[in-house]
Specification:
Alpha-Beta Plaits; 2 domains; 8 helices
């Protein structure tokens, strides 16, 4: 019954799209991203509506409107509404992807999550319940579990990018000396200026390759944090 186009099945499909997309968007909401749970839910509902509208128009054209269609020779392609929904999310996703401070690109995961949400909404509207269930579980696992695995993997690499705020530009020498004492190779230093409530402070992004003997990311961060000239230090994970 749920695969037939009845009022009950339409309500179920919209609720299914809303529920699965809410689970996907929950992870983005926890990280305070621009597109949170409500955005995911609305986009998925809209995608499901586009499919339901396509099905409804097709049934009307071969049913109550059949005589008019025979007279004017109207041709209908139900996939156009679906393709427009996918194309429309591309513009929204492009607006979310930005290049932030320290050369970090932000919003890629959110933008791709929105695209997957559209596909979930389309599948829900079409009544393809099996793929919605499987895709929903996989997407939630990727967003919640694989992010931890990816972060742990990147922190085990010898390459590390450090963002350090310090008191004056002359302190760069002390910072580089400490890194060299740990046999780390500095390949690039990008000096910037950080704005704080109490004024401006120099900062720099260090691209470093750690030695085989000492490749602990937390160890390097702790050593830099102990310097009196360092105001803050953190690792940038791209």
């Amino acid at each position: 019954m749920l695969r037939e186009l009845t009022f009950g099945s339409m309500v179920f499909r919209l609720l299914l799209a809303m529920g699965v997309s809410a689970a996907v968007g929950y992870e983005r909401s926890k990280k305070e991203q621009a597109a949170g749970m409500r955005i995911y839910m609305l986009i998925s509902i809209g995608a499901a509506m586009s499919v339901l509208l396509s099905i409804y128009l097709y049934q009307m054209l071969i049913g109550p409107w059949a005589d008019t269609v025979d007279e004017v020779g109207f041709k209908y392609d139900g996939s156009r509404l679906v393709s427009q929904a996918v194309a429309g999310i591309s513009f929204l996703g492009a607006g979310i992807i930005i290049k932030g401070l320290h050369h970090q690109v932000r919003g890629l995961t959110t933008a791709t999550g929105l695209f997957v949400t559209v596909c979930i909404g389309i599948a829900s509207g079409a009544g393809f319940y099996e793929i919605v269930a499987v895709a929903g579980v996989l997407v939630v696992l990727v967003l919640n579990v694989m992010s931890l695995v990816e972060g742990a993997y990147k922190r085990r690499l010898r390459n590390i990018t450090l963002y350090v705020e310090f008191s004056s530009v002359e302190d760069i020498q002390e910072i580089t000396t400490l890194l060299q004492e740990q046999n780390a190779q500095i390949s690039d230093i990008d000096i910037e200026r950080s704005e704080r409530k109490d004024g401006y402070y120099p900062c720099a992004t260090f691209t470093v390759r750690l030695s085989r003997e000492n490749h602990s990311h937390s160890g390097v961060l702790s050593s830099l944090a102990e310097l009196s000239c360092v105001r803050s230090v953190r690792e940038l994970i791209f």
